[in-house]
Write a structure and sequence with these properties.
The protein is of the alpha/beta class. The chain is built from eleven helices and ten strands. Strand 6 and strand 7 form a beta hairpin.
Amino acid sequence: MSQLVDRRLSGKNRSAVNRQRFLRRFKGQIRKAVTEAVSGRKVADLERGEKISIPSKDLSEPIFHHGPGGRRNIVHPGNQEFVGGDRVDRPEAGAGSGGGKGSPDGEGMDEFVFELSKEEFMEFFFQDLALPDLVKKQLAAVPEVKRARAGFVSQGNPSNLHVVRSMKQAIGRRLTMASGPREALREAEEALEGLIAQGLGASPEADELREAIATLKARIAAVPFIDTWDLRYANRVDQPTPSSQAVMFCLLDVSGSMDENRKNIAKRFFMLLYLFLTKSYERIELVFIRHHTVASEVDEENFFSARESGGTVVSSALELMREIILDRYPSAAWNIYAAQASDGDNWEQDSLRCRELLTHSILPLVQYFAYVEIEAREPQSLWREYELVRASSPRFAMQRILGLEDIYPVFRELFSKKVT
């Protein structure tokens, strides 16, 4: 077995290998730098690369080197030449050591700037997160296909000729076509042997049998060993391959109490969840449901821009979500996720209805349901009812967001990996 070793200075894909080695070696420093970068950027700009800086001290490697040797002048504590407060003369040119580009104020540390691609940045960003129950598969609307075997056909490309199958077909054909003549040949030979035993081998009957035997042998010999009809070709067809798909329901309270700041926080949370789902699913559909006293399905633009006056009936959004799931997204074929954002205001009588809908109608259909309460001063009836839901179902999670800086920590808490 021969092995080829690429020893070129710039071999194919060598840069990619070195890059992956660098990412593995300085994973801790890069992860810390990514965390700092996330805190300083908007969620809308999350899915892009980033330039990160790694202190040069973290890039140092232990090396063997010669000691200084010779005579050295070292200042020790308690020496007789210098006392506290003396100024040390600047070394002569070339006597000092150092390099690189330092900080202007002299207090900084040389840094190595490394640029992460969008894929690498997202990989580090989502490294500590995981989706629950990623198990369902379904054919996508525009499915990917692969070539799959589909039996044999009598016509095809010569390169797909199946020799064994063709020979079996030829043997069966020869047996079928020669079975009648072979039976007649056997009977004629038995009859000729009978005449010869009776001493009638030179009779006209014997001559006729000899002619018939010759004719039958010629017919049997004329059966071709293989014919074009026997040829069989391996058939392959395009077969759709399963691909994971999910639907994400976004439920937003647009009543009078939800001001622009609260909706801005909710928007960033939804966008973060969407980016997270794109890491695990090939196809994602979004369903936007806004509600005040009445719920409606809208597009993304109206979802975040509209604002209504009046009270809040949260159960209207949950009922509409259940209807949409039953009508368009059967749970046997879709991974269903939902995120609900509200300030916690709701009619007292309606909160119990919300708990019943979640427990009996929605949670059995979804993979995960996350509820975030935005800038709520104190827990109200909806929060208290949802606490009962959280205690009874592992598919339900809830957190409170007080400001923009809480979006990412709350998101990580909702979708953190389970310790086993």
